[in-house]
Amino acid sequence: MRKKKIFYVITFIILILFITSLSFAFDRVKFAAISDPHISIPQQKGVSDGFKLGLKTVMLTENAVAEINKVPDLKFVLVGGDLTQDAEPWNIDELRRILDALKVPYYVVLGNHDLSLVPHEKKDQPMSLSKYSVAGAFIGRSGGMVPGMTYYAHEVAKDLVLIGLDTSRAQVFVPEANLNDYGGRVDVGQMRWLESMLKKNRKKTIIVLTHHSMVPWHEADKSKEHNFWRWFWMDNAEEVRALLKKYGVRVVFSGHRHISTRYQYVDDIYHFITPAVSTYPMRYVVYEMTPKELSWEVKNIPAPQEVWDLAKKNFLANKWWRGPDHPESPEGDQKYLEFYESPQTMKGKITFK
Ligand SMILES: [Fe+2]
Ligand SMILES: [Fe+2]
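Above: query sequence and fe (ii) ion SMILES. Below: predicted holo structure tokens.
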């Protein structure tokens, strides 16, 4: 009789623990995403409004923060890298000031513009800091970084793990392209760390935030001849995707490409891209996620009409960002606008397979 009683009590406790663990797992999480603020305070010498609206980066990022603060029930904000013009200390301070006005925790990753530059004869480099200093300015609730590291993993809601990667690598001037190499990769040490984090959290829902994409977004990005287009997605993308696939990662959010939100399903993972704050069409995204699906809405960052007009004018006038497939003609302009504005994916929903 006593044994039977003990059996019932233990069964009851196990049942309660089981039900409790189920009820605590996240069922719906709302979060926002911005990317590529490229903060450059107007007082800095040489800052101007081009394809990137250098002089407007502070205003645009502040306006994005103000709008995101109005979204009810928001849990956190993702910031997809290229935080500063080129890792200048004054721009790091300014971005930290702006993002700290968010009412919820935010998580940043480093972009190719957030590390020290190697000076070369063609360019006067500004005073850029080491990426470890940039990461060090965004520790804890203000950025998600952990001391001494440039990447992290955090449980951002019950059983929802966010992994922030560091895809930045040395930017060396490439004379043939007349550009600094802006490619990225996940280095060997970080790959080992990544696998250990994925293994540890394999029973949870995992999402990844990264600056460089793991997939090309356009035919030109696949080109071997135009190596500067290839620099839009990481060098070892296949290797990283294979690792994420092995552990059932659900979604990857990236920035860097400066196109509006769209997505691809590659290697059993949904890859989303976040629009840039600093370039046309200046936008942010609000996501809602459950363990089964992800829905989103892309919104314009409020700015005076003259700023929008300038952004579009500078966008259309820029030869470089058009790439080989968008020639300067009425049809070329239309294709160019469609590629960067992506009107079909302003709103949407996907169901995880
Ligand atoms: Fe960027
Ligand atoms: Fe970038």
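The chain has one domain: 2-351.
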